[in-house]
Structures are given as structure tokens and as C-alpha cells.
TrEMBL record, chain A:
<keyword id="KW-0997">Cell inner membrane</keyword>
<dbReference type="Pfam" id="PF00528">
    <property type="entry name" value="BPD_transp_1"/>
</dbReference>
<dbReference type="InterPro" id="IPR000515">
    <property type="entry name" value="MetI-like"/>
</dbReference>
<feature type="transmembrane region" description="Helical">
    <location>
        <begin position="94"/>
        <end position="114"/>
    </location>
</feature>
<dbReference type="GO" id="GO:0005886">
    <property type="term" value="C:plasma membrane"/>
</dbReference>
<dbReference type="InterPro" id="IPR035906">
    <property type="entry name" value="MetI-like_sf"/>
</dbReference>
<keyword id="KW-1133">Transmembrane helix</keyword>
<feature type="transmembrane region" description="Helical">
    <location>
        <begin position="200"/>
        <end position="222"/>
    </location>
</feature>
<keyword id="KW-0472">Membrane</keyword>
<protein>
    <submittedName>
        <fullName>ABC transporter permease subunit</fullName>
    </submittedName>
</protein>
<feature type="transmembrane region" description="Helical">
    <location>
        <begin position="156"/>
        <end position="179"/>
    </location>
</feature>
<feature type="domain" description="ABC transmembrane type-1">
    <location>
        <begin position="88"/>
        <end position="279"/>
    </location>
</feature>
<keyword id="KW-1003">Cell membrane</keyword>
<keyword id="KW-0812">Transmembrane</keyword>
<feature type="transmembrane region" description="Helical">
    <location>
        <begin position="126"/>
        <end position="150"/>
    </location>
</feature>
<dbReference type="GO" id="GO:0055085">
    <property type="term" value="P:transmembrane transport"/>
</dbReference>
<feature type="transmembrane region" description="Helical">
    <location>
        <begin position="260"/>
        <end position="283"/>
    </location>
</feature>
């Protein structure tokens, strides 16, 4: 036993390098993990505090609220003025419509962009990248003004149209690597066996792309849930998504009771976390922000 | 299609178009490109056209000449200051976020147990958005909230962050660190570990390896990350209203857009303000892209073989 315990340091090199793992105890390491720790603590504390507050009878400071009640949720869910239930329904209506349109228009486009090169391709790529790169606030007003001009302001179709702008390029972005994964040989083989274009897409490429479509759809739903600015500028009271309603209640100077706002925010968090968890079972988390750089 | 095909060889003009079609196909233009049309049409109509439309209506204000909106913006200090207020908020937010995200991303570049949990944790704020973050901040940073209880307990005294510049600053950092971290982990992960190992065998210590090998390789990715973060920070909106001072220290570029569109229903002025914001954003993106092209652009992952 003794020999096996003392042997490794001798093999590993100079004494001391092994006992103090340099990765953990450098100054930069301590600073890095302290900063990250503070960040995570604030983040988790913030979510915990929101949840606690939504159950509080009143919370005027201190570690814990004076008492607990579930009545804020009942009020937030049913109240005609705040109606989380109806806003949630609206959010899903927006989300599903945006997904259907984006997938129908986006998957063929992703196919062409992944397989073909043609004059002006880089222009199309830039055109599709801009709505993702630029924050929604840069185009939300102009778009909403246009939508009001054509008479769709404050309506659900208007909100759906404005949410399409970042969603469609996003679907194309997510789908392109999935198309690249389908080898062209498969298509050529199908052609050789007599498949026409409809067969090719319906029987061969379509099914192979289905996981990608599923991933793109659920990620689009996540994004529609959180898309605040676009919906905020176009929506009316009846076509608000939940996050816009939460902002409305929080920014209301007349003062909605803080626990009520917290209850609405918790409803929003809970639903988007469910959608988010669903999304993660389909995709690698880093794909949500960036495309995987490894080929 | 089936009926058209047999007719073609019979007619001479059709032959000419056919050969034109063949020539176009050689250059990559054929019917498959039709599949692009729905997507391009939607983005064109709902993104490009509104931009043009916005610029047009910004030059036809309710009162005054064509340039009235822009003149108002730049002559009214309360409005033109928003550019300075935005820069004053966005640069420190991006810098602070980079200070937190870069060292952490560097340490998380290799696969390890729990990486997924950490990634998920940092994805939360990206997913939930700044409205919820701001709402949570009002609770924990309130005068006798948790943060002040902790700070008071260790003798650092109470801080008053809410409804000031610092409220929006904290909300901005909370939103942008995750974005940066996830992008940077991707960029660091794209660098072949063999390069660092090679430097180590040649006698480079940890510091040298970072500054002479890893850092130059990640620099283009870093610049990309920074541009995306700055673009986001220039458009901070909900947190400027909810935890900042939208009439004073956080009267950033987004606030005049919001005031013109949602409170005065003056879409002409709102479009002018949004156009100014777009120009500022494009300036930032342009500058950083120009910087990026000056950096190393070779392969960072090992070759094949």
C-alpha cells in the first residue's frame, strides 16, 4: 500500500506540482470562480425571490415574507384584467402559427441554401442574418407602423406577422446543418430508383429532416415566448403574449400589487421552462445561441 | 410539366430558351431556386420593406420639413443625449460581461462533468428575458432585500441599485453574460487542444500558452461575441424602464422610440429615432467587422490527417 501511494509523485515530476493542482488555486482562478459564483447566486436568488414573493401575503423586506397564500395565482390566472390563462392561450396561438409558416417557408429555403451555390447567394445570406443579428427594437416600430397602416394593428395576425421576422431566418439557420447531414448520394440513389421530386421530398428528405424540423419548431416556440419587443409594439390588449402582459403589469405606475406581478412572472417562467426543457431533449443547448462550429 | 416536355424539341424559340436554361443551370440558376421565394418574399416584405418604409415616413413628419424629426432629435439635448446615455450604459455592460464570461468560458472549454448543468443554468436568463430578470431584481435588491441583508451582514453596507443607472447595468450584465459565455465556449471549443499541447511540449507555461496561442486564435470569435453583445446592449429596453430611470440616467436610445410610438402615436418620429438606432448599430457592427478582418483567419482546428 505504502509503495503505491508514494510512487505517483515521483513519476509525475517535481514535488509539489501534483499536490497543488495549479488549475484551482491561481489568483485568476479564484477571481473567475468568485465572479461566476456571485453571478449564479444573484441569478438563482432572483428566481427564488420571485417564486417566494408570488406566494407571499405581503413582503416588505427581510429574509422571508410574513405569510403565504395561493390567492395571487388564482387572481392572476382568472382576473379579467390580467388573465394569465387567456394570455397564455394567445402566446401559444402566436407560437404555433409562426412555427407553421416558418417551417413551410424556411425548410425549402434551408435546403436550397445548404445544397446550391448561385449568384447572389451571399446577399440572401446577409438578408437572412440581419433579422437575427439586429435587436428587434431596431425594426419593431417601423414594422408595427406598417402593420397598423394595413389595418392589422392590435390583431393576432399582425402579431404573428411581426414575430415571423426573426423566426423564419432562425428556422433556416437551424435547419441548414440538418440538411447538410443528409448525404446527396441518398437523393441521387432515390432519383436512380425513379423517384420524382415529390417522392424525393415526401418520402426521402422529409422524413430524414423531421428531427431537425421538430428541433427548429420547439426552439421557435421558446423564442416566441420570450420575444418581448416585437409583440409589445404591435399587440393590443386582446393579442398580448404573456411576457408583454407581465411587462404591462410591472410597468404600471398605478401599481399592481407586487406579489400579483410576481405570480404572473412565475406563471410565465413555469411555462417557458416546460417548453425549454422540451426543447433541450431535442437539441444541444449551445445550438440555441450559436451554430456548432465543428463540422 | 409532363405535357410541356414533348412539345419542346418541336419549336425553335423554345430551343433557344432551353439552351439559356441550360446555361443558367451551369451557373447555378435553376428551378430549385424557386424554393427560396417564399422565405425571401416574407423577409423582404416584413423586414426590408418596413426599413425603407420607416426611413420614408421619418422624412414626412406631421409638422415641419422633411428633416424636422432629425433636427428635433439632434437639437433637443434631452433627445440627442440618449446616444451618449446609451454608449455610457452599453460599453460598461459589455466590458463587465466580458470580464465575467471570458475567463469562465476559457476554463469551461474542455468537456467535464457538469458542463451541461452549467450551460443550462446560463441559458435560463437568455430564455426568460430581461422583463423577468428586472422583476426579480426589484425584489432581491430592494432596500431590505436579500442582497442588502447579505451585504449588511458582512459589513459592506446597503447598496441602492434599483431605479438608477446601476439597476439597468445589473440587469444588462445578467442578460449579456450568458449570451457571451455560450458563444465563447463554442469558440474556445473550436480550437484544437493539440495546439496548446504542442506549445506545452515546447516549454510554454500556462500564461504564455494562453496569451501566445489560445488568445490570438480566439480573438476573431471574441470580436464577433463582443459585437453581438454591444448590439444587444445598445437596444436595452425593458430593464431601462423597469429598474432604471427612464427619464434621467437610463434615458437610452430605445426610450424615445417607445415614447413616440406608444405614448404620442407619432410613428414618423418613432421611425426617425429607430433609424438613428439602426445607424448606430450598423456603425458598431461595421467597426468591429473591419477590426475582425484584420485578425488571424486561418484554421484553429487541426487539419485532416
Amino acid at each position: 500500500m505504502t509503495t503505491t501511494l508514494t510512487a505517483p509523485p515521483v513519476v509525475a515530476g517535481p514535488a509539489g506540482t501534483r499536490r497543488r493542482d495549479p488549475r484551482r488555486f491561481t489568483l485568476t482562478g479564484v477571481l473567475t470562480y468568485t465572479a461566476a459564483g456571485c453571478f449564479v447566486l444573484v441569478l438563482l436568488g432572483l428566481f427564488a425571490a420571485l417564486i417566494l414573493e408570488s406566494f407571499a401575503t405581503a413582503w416588505r423586506g427581510g429574509w422571508l415574507p410574513a405569510g403565504f397564500t395561493g390567492s395571487w395565482f388564482a387572481q392572476a390566472w382568472n382576473d379579467p384584467a390580467y388573465g394569465v390563462s387567456s394570455h397564455l392561450l394567445t402566446t401559444f396561438e402566436i407560437g404555433v402559427s409562426v412555427i407553421v409558416i416558418s417551417v413551410l417557408a424556411g425548410v425549402p429555403a434551408a435546403y436550397v441554401l445548404a445544397r446550391r451555390s448561385f449568384p447572389g447567394k451571399s446577399l440572401v445570406m446577409v438578408l437572412l442574418a440581419l433579422p437575427i443579428l439586429l435587436p428587434p427594437l431596431t425594426y419593431a416600430t417601423q414594422l408595427s407602423s406598417l402593420i397598423y397602416t394595413i389595418g392589422l394593428g392590435s390583431t393576432l395576425p399582425g402579431v404573428i406577422l411581426s414575430n415571423l421576422v426573426p423566426a423564419l431566418p432562425f428556422v433556416i439557420l437551424v435547419m441548414t446543418p440538418f440538411v447538410e447531414q443528409v448525404r446527396p448520394d441518398v437523393e441521387q440513389a432515390a432519383r436512380m430508383c425513379g423517384a420524382n421530386t415529390w417522392h424525393l421530398f415526401g418520402r426521402i428528405i422529409g422524413p430524414l429532416l423531421l428531427p431537425g424540423v421538430l428541433a427548429a419548431s420547439i426552439l421557435t416556440l421558446v423564442r416566441v415566448f420570450g420575444a418581448f419587443e416585437l409583440t409589445f409594439f404591435v399587440a393590443g390588449p386582446q393579442s398580448q403574449s404573456l411576457i408583454v402582459a407581465v411587462f404591462g403589469a410591472a410597468a404600471n405606475p398605478a401599481g399592481s400589487a407586487p406579489p400579483l406581478v410576481a405570480a404572473m412572472a412565475v406563471c410565465y417562467m413555469a411555462t417557458s421552462l416546460v417548453v425549454f426543457a422540451l426543447a433541450l431533449s431535442f437539441v444541444n443547448p449551445t445550438q440555441i445561441v450559436s451554430r456548432e462550429r465543428k463540422s | 410539366m409532363a405535357t410541356a416536355a414533348p412539345a419542346r424539341p418541336a419549336m425553335a424559340p423554345e430551343q433557344a430558351t432551353q439552351s439559356l436554361g441550360a446555361r443558367l443551370a451551369d451557373r447555378g440558376i435553376d428551378r430549385a431556386l424557386l424554393l427560396l421565394i417564399p422565405a425571401v418574399a416574407i423577409v423582404g416584405l416584413l423586414f426590408v420593406y418596413p426599413f425603407v418604409y420607416g426611413v420614408l415616413i421619418s422624412f414626412s413628419p406631421e409638422n415641419g420639413g422633411a428633416w424636422a424629426n432629425y433636427r428635433d432629435f439632434f437639437t433637443d439635448p434631452y433627445q440627442s443625449q440618449t446616444i451618449w446615455y446609451t454608449v455610457r450604459l452599453a460599453l460598461p455592460v459589455a466590458a463587465a460581461s466580458l470580464l465575467i464570461a471570458l475567463p469562465l468560458a476559457y476554463r469551461l472549454r474542455r468537456d467535464f462533468r457538469g458542463k451541461r448543468v452549467i450551460t443550462l443554468l446560463f441559458l435560463l436568463p437568455v430564455t426568460l428575458g430581461s422583463v423577468v430578470l428586472s422583476e426579480g431584481l426589484t425584489t432581491i435588491f430592494s432596500p431590505s432585500g436579500w442582497v442588502n441583508l447579505v451585504l449588511g451582514g458582512i459589513g459592506l453596507g446597503p447598496v441602492s441599485v434599483l431605479y438608477s443607472y446601476w439597476g439597468t447595468f445589473v440587469a444588462g450584465v445578467l442578460g449579456i453574460v450568458p449570451l457571451m459565455l455560450l458563444l465563447l465556449i463554442g469558440f474556445f471549443g473550436g480550437i484544437d487542444p493539440a495546439l496548446e499541447d504542442a506549445a506545452a511540449t515546447l516549454g510554454a507555461g500556462r500564461t504564455v500558452r494562453f496569451w501566445r496561442v489560445t488568445f490570438p486564435l480566439v480573438l476573431p470569435g471574441l470580436v464577433t461575441t463582443l459585437s453581438l453583445a454591444l448590439v444587444e446592449a445598445f437596444a436595452i429596453f425593458p430593464s431601462a424602464v423597469l429598474v432604471g430611470e427612464p427619464n434621467a440616467s437610463t434615458h437610452v436610445l430605445s426610450i424615445p422610440i417607445y415614447e413616440a410610438a406608444q405614448q404620442r402615436f407619432d410613428y414618423s418620429a418613432a421611425s426617425a429615432d429607430a433609424t438613428i438606432m439602426v445607424l448606430v448599430e450598423l456603425l458598431v457592427l461595421g467597426l468591429l467587422t473591419a477590426l475582425r478582418t484584420r485578425l488571424y483567419r486561418g484554421a484553429a482546428s487541426g487539419g485532416k490527417g
